[in-house]
Design goal:
Blueprint: E1 6-9, H1 19-36, H2 45-52, H3 57-68, H4 74-95, H5 102-111, E2 116-120, H6 124-133, E3 145-147, H7 162-171, E4 178-182, H8 185-194, E5 198-201, H9 203-208, H10 211-223, E6 229-231, H11 237-246
Parallel strand pairs: 1-2, 1-4, 2-3, 4-5, 5-6
């Protein structure tokens, strides 16, 4: 019998190669907003990723207002969030691909009897679109997809641990009885604050940015976020899980 009661999984750049696609979709909206407020700075996909990776668009808009010293009325913020969600969902539905090895490992977990849930910062429609596009939605019934942007009232965003604590409460498990996989500092921080054993997946940085960035993130997520293990490739997951379970 599995010793871990729930495997909780981040979605963006952990299960699905979606982060860059999503930031492509929201770069234009971000620059349009800055222009509306007479701010000369403009963002590229890479500069947005650098400043806001791991945050949802609502959290990003809050950060932009602080950084550039302007204030959006709540209804305008909601309008931009809605527009971004539609643009990103459409792009992911067309182009998303799984992180290498994910479908095989989810099937293995399913066959071994491990219950799984997605715990994401991103809005639920976007997460569901990603899971469907890459064919792994069968492992995550609708009630096991949790979103900091849409499952909570008021909405939240990692590194706030609220979405992890909410998911554990809904699933009827204690944080320490679970394990999670995260790729970003904000997600890993949320897991750490919630008290959930953490596997840091850094292989995505090797795919998108190179070995140096991958090693930097391995160091950061271990030293800053107390990751229990670092995973460079999803093929390593069974062995890592076994080691973590031996410590429970």
């Amino acid at each position: 019998m599995p010793q871990v009661k729930y495997v909780l999984l981040d979605c963006d750049n952990t299960l699905v190669l979606s982060e860059r696609l999503a930031f492509e979709a929201c770069a234009d909206l971000t620059n349009q907003l800055l222009e509306e407020y007479g701010i000369k700075d403009r963002y590229t996909v890479d500069s947005l990723l650098k400043d806001f990776v791991g945050q949802n668009f609502r959290g990003m808009l809050v950060g932009l207002q602080k950084k550039h010293n302007f204030q959006m009325p709540p209804e305008q913020l909601d309008d931009y969030v809605g527009r971004e969600l539609a643009a990103v969902t459409a792009k992911l539905s067309a182009k998303a691909e799984p992180c290498p090895g994910v479908p095989e490992q989810l099937e293995r977990l399913s066959q071994a009897g491990y219950p799984m849930a997605v715990v994401s910062t991103s809005a639920k429609p976007r997460v569901v679109a990603s899971l469907k596009k890459v064919g792994i939605d069968k492992y995550f019934p609708d009630e096991h997809v949790y979103s900091a942007a849409t499952s909570l009232n008021p909405p939240s965003s990692k590194p706030d641990p609220k979405i992890y604590l909410y998911a554990c409460e809904q699933l009827g498990v204690k944080p320490a009885e679970c394990v999670t996989v995260e790729d970003s500092k904000s997600g890993a921080t949320a897991a750490m604050r919630a008290g959930i054993p953490l596997i840091a997946y850094v292989g995505v940085y090797g795919i998108e940015e190179g070995k140096e960035k991958m090693e930097q993130m391995a160091k950061l997520l271990t030293e800053t976020c107390n990751a229990d293990a670092v995973m460079y490739d999803w093929k390593e997951f069974p062995e890592i899980l076994k080691k973590l379970e031996s410590k429970l």
